[in-house]
Design goal:
The chain is an alpha/beta fold. It has a domain of 198 residues: 3-Layer(aba) Sandwich (Rossmann fold), CATH 3.40.50. The protein contains 9 helices and 10 strands. An 8-stranded mixed β-sheet has the order 1-2-4-3-5-6-9-10, sandwiched between helices.
Length: 285
């Protein structure tokens, strides 16, 4: 279910203008609002769009990312949740399926705990818990590229293909995702659209957040998808089996599914059949 190749729509919500993409679907069948991760953008949801129908899938760039506005400050889970609430109001959506990956899953947990009446169901993709310090080390390649200008798009994509988490896994979804990530740099090359200051503030606020105290407050039926493989090594997965089981136990109506052969990126950006089948079953149950 491909999206239009046109630029995302611009929707102002909570005082910030967000880049918003809607896939073809029937709003009468429900709306799925998808929230991406720390340094990501809305295009990460392309591979799962077909599993959402007939409902309408809406994904957006968080403030500070992609083609959304990048204010000087305001990068925290609570602020993103306020943006999401305002976006639902602007879209005229009273209750939505909220689906988040990584930081987006953390935002979804916060939102579901504080605004239970606005969440019909919840999908958490490899996130939604308090992360271990070593996990941030494994995200270093994503963070270190910020502010760096690469000679060309081909050079940038070639660098990414050589990273351990993408070895033998590169595909068109990753090409689309990282191509959208960059903009022309002042030296004639390309650089990420995400300012480094945005992520620095985000991480500082994330370190002060405790999500585990919210899990038991989630009322919506929840699907938790876990990627078991590491990023830079065999063991640096974002969510260990024990952590995922504890989280699934704390959320009252939660189904945990481990997606074999995937890491934190490829659980979304690899068109995995188990992810699609679990989403379809969850949305139709």
């Amino acid at each position: 279910m491909p999206a239009s190749t046109a630029a995302p729509d611009r929707v102002t919500a909570n005082g910030v203008t967000l880049a918003v993409r809607a896939w073809p679907g029937d709003p009468a069948a429900g709306t799925v609002v998808a929230v991406h991760g720390l340094t990501a953008n809305h295009t990460c949801w392309h591979p799962v769009a077909g599993a959402v129908g007939p409902a309408r899938l809406v994904a957006y760039d968080l403030r500070g990312r992609g083609d959304s506005d990048k204010p000087a400050t305001g990068y925290s889970i609570a602020q993103h949740a306020a943006d999401l609430l305002a976006l639902l109001d602007r879209l005229g959506v009273e209750r939505a399926v909220v689906m988040g990956h990584s930081l987006g899953a953390a935002i979804a947990v916060w939102f579901a705990a504080h605004h239970p009446g606005r969440v019909d169901r919840l999908v958490l993709v490899d996130g939604g818990l308090d992360v271990r310090p070593e996990v941030l080390d494994s995200l270093a390649p994503a963070i270190n590229r910020l502010g760096v200008e690469f000679p060309s798009l081909d050079h940038f994509l070639g660098m990414l293909r050589g990273l351990p988490m993408f070895a033998g896994r590169w595909n068109e979804d990753l090409t689309r995702y990282f191509t959208y990530d960059v903009e022309p740099g002042p030296g004639g090359g390309v650089r990420s659209k995400v300012p480094r200051r945005v992520i620095e503030e985000e991480l500082a606020n994330l370190a002060r957040t405790r999500l585990w105290v919210l899990h038991h407050r989630i009322a919506a039926p929840t699907l938790l998808l876990r990627a078991p493989e590491g990023l830079l090594g065999a063991t640096d997965c974002l969510m260990t089996r024990e952590e995922a089981e504890a989280m699934a136990h704390a959320i009252p109506r939660c189904r945990l599914v481990t997606v074999p052969g995937t890491n934190h990126y490829t659980i979304l950006l690899s068109d995995h059949p188990l992810v699609a089948s679990e989403l379809r079953a969850f949305f139709r149950s």
